[in-house]
Specification:
By secondary structure, the protein is an alpha+beta fold. It has seven helices and five strands, in the order αβαβααβαβαβα. Strands 1, 2, 3, 4 and 5 form a five-stranded antiparallel β-sheet that branches.
Length: about 200
C-alpha cells in the first residue's frame, strides 16, 4: 500500500497523548544528564521519529552524525582547537574546559544541514525547517521515553577544526548537538509564550 494513502487513526486519547508529551518536553542541559543513554531499540525509534519530518522534494537536506563514547576525546580535541582558532592565547585550563564539554551527554548527535548549493526549488529556509522538524520529533520521542534532552551549539560549530573533523561537505553547516540521556534531577519548566503572543489573524485589529 502506498504510504500516502494511509490515514492516521485519530481519537481523543491520541490527541491527549500528543498534547501531554508536547507540553512535557523541556530542555535538560548536558551537565544535568547521566547514563545510561537510550537503548539500541530506543535509538532506532528516535531515528525513525526524526525521519518523519517534512521534506520538500525528498531532498534529505539534513543528516545526523552520532558521536560515540570512543570518539569523545577526539571531539574534545576539536573543541580545544576551535577555541584556539578564536583565541590563540587560551590557557591550558580554558582548553581543558573546552575538551570536557565533549563528554557530558550519554548520547550525542551532531545535526548537519545542507544549506548551500544550487537547489532553487528548495531554498535554505525550507531545508532548515526540515532539520528543525526532525530534531523536534526526536526530542518529543525522547521525552515520551522518559529521557532528558537538549540542543547545544556554540562558536565551535563554525570552526575549521569541527568542520574538517566530522567531514562536513562544502554546502553543509553544523547546526547543533543533540544531547540525550537520563535526568539527574528534573527542573521546573520555563514559562512559554501564550498562543495569543505569537499567533494573529491577518486583517484583524
Amino acid at each position: 500500500m502506498n504510504n500516502d494513502t494511509v490515514q492516521p487513526h485519530l481519537d481523543d486519547d491520541a490527541t491527549a497523548w500528543a498534547a501531554h508529551w508536547i507540553d512535557a518536553r523541556r530542555t535538560t542541559l548536558p551537565k544535568r544528564l547521566c547514563g545510561p543513554g537510550p537503548t539500541e531499540d530506543q535509538k532506532v525509534a528516535l531515528r525513525r521519529a526524526a525521519c518523519a519530518a517534512p521534506d520538500h522534494g525528498q531532498r534529505r537536506p539534513w543528516r545526523c552524525i552520532e558521536i560515540g563514547a570512543d570518539q569523545r576525546a577526539l571531539l574534545g580535541e576539536w573543541f580545544a582547537q576551535a577555541l584556539l582558532e578564536r583565541d590563540p592565547h587560551a590557557n591550558a585550563a580554558e582548553q581543558a574546559q573546552a575538551r570536557e564539554k565533549a563528554h557530558r551527554a550519554p548520547w550525542l548527535l551532531l545535526l548537519v544541514c545542507r544549506v548551500r548549493g544550487d537547489d532553487p526549488e528548495v531554498p535554505p529556509a525550507e531545508r532548515l525547517l526540515s532539520a528543525g522538524c526532525a530534531v523536534q520529533n526526536l526530542l518529543l520521542m525522547a521525552t515520551a521515553m522518559g529521557l532528558g534532552s537538549a540542543l547545544t551549539s556554540g562558536k565551535a560549530m563554525a570552526s575549521r577544526a569541527l568542520r574538517e573533523g566530522v567531514g562536513l561537505h562544502a554546502d553543509e553547516d553544523a547546526l547543533c548537538f543533540v544531547n540525550v540521556g537520563h535526568v539527574k534531577a528534573w527542573r521546573a519548566a520555563h514559562a512559554r509564550p501564550q498562543p495569543d503572543d505569537v499567533f494573529s489573524v491577518l486583517g484583524s485589529d
